[in-house]
Amino acid sequence: xxxxxxxxxxxxxxxxxxxxxxxxxxxxxxxxxxxxxxxxxxxxxxxxxxxxxxxxxxxxxxxxxxxxxxxxxxxxxxxxxxxxxxxxxxxxxxxxxxxxxxxxxxxxxxxxxxxxxxxxxxxxxxxxxxxxxxxxxxxxxxxxxxxxxxxxxxxxxxxxxxxxxxxxxxxxxxxxxxxxxxxxxxxxxxxxxxxxxxxxxxxxxxxxxxxxxxxxxxxxxxxxxxxxxxxxxxxxxxxxxxxxxxxxxxxxxxxxxxxxxxxxxxxxxxxxxxxxxxxxxxxxxxxxxxxxxxxxxxxxxxxxxxxxxxxxxxxxxxxxxxxxxxxxxxxxxxxxxxxxxxxxxxxxxxxxxxxxxxxxxxxxxxxxxxxxxxxxxxxxxxxxxxxxxxxxxxxxxxxxxxxxxxxxxxxxxxxxxxxxxxxxxxxxxxxxxxxxxxxxxxxxxxxxxxxxxxxxxxxxxxxxxxxxxx
Length: 470
What we know:
Layout (H helix, E strand, L loop, with lengths): L1 H35 L8 H21 L11 H26 L9 H22 L8 E6 L6 H6 L9 E7 L24 H7 L4 E4 L10 H9 L3 E4 H9 L9 H6 L8 H5 L1 H35 L4 E7 L5 E7 L23 H8 L8 H5 L4 E3 L6 H10 L12 E3 L1 H5 L6 H17 L2 H16 L5
Parallel strand pairs: 1-2, 1-3, 3-4, 7-8
Antiparallel strand pairs: 5-6
């Protein structure tokens, strides 16, 4: 354990030193660029060094205060970005106040501090992306052991098979617990036959375990509460399987959910009051800006659909269909028609990957999501948002509510043009696919924020530009 702590301390020190260099360099380069474009006057080297040093030290101190250098920081990338913004914002005001109050002669021009802090934020976010997501310096990577080797524990084996899925942790192994369903349990992962009794803490310390994931099938009478209590007092993290999967995979494992976890779990209620208050305004402004750029594409799309089969069949180039929206209310979604006029002559059907009902134009506009553009009108009407779970048809919702647990909870937010589920599980044509997509939809419902919306928008633009859509 002592060796592990030394390694953690070494990694943290390397991180502090590296970020100090990045902050100082961006402070210097910001002043250099400002002088080159004529926004700032040249200052003495001593004055510049003092200002850069003040900014570097203040950001390091503020970063330390918000936990950015905590060796066991278990935070999502969005959470890390928030902490960077907080530490940089605090540093901005700290340097501004201190320099004007005590070092008036050393105050730089008005452009320096905003430019320096802005460039530092961008640099630190990019740097943390590589250290956090790609596992550089071993930051955020902890040694874990899973308590359980049955059916519940097997979700880790099934969902996180690739090395890229385990960047954030090193899985030491699975420990079988009495009551585990071993027939449907772990198949290929390492099984550790360790006794979960008074000697368990010694096993944890000897193997430098930093986190225990509870994934046993039967808890009552089998979960070693006192042993886990001792581990927690020693600073070992104890995490429930649902929380672990949510943190590492960005989804909520619906089929393993139980009522008490939902009751005590954080989230499922947006705390971003500014985002909630400006929800409709932000969506309408964004829809208007996009409409200014895409209306020519919409005009040509309508013309091509009409020339393809619209003039011959007399069918509209638009397709209106009833969908389930916020709080279960029905509304008419508007899309460019991508299927033949008789596509549902035999009733409602799930769309399939190579659906023969799709027209020649339909294949193209679906690939680049052009068929979704008329839904801007649904956004203007307040029926949809840009980001949210994709709205489903009432006929399918009735079936899914009966067969998929917690399915109705996705209607707690407005449906959207793009969603977290579409990015992570882009194809769905069955009840089983709907179950998988619901795991990501509920994650969005629980973690909805402006930052997550921006992330989804950026990744959606990438899909559209490179034609990765279905």
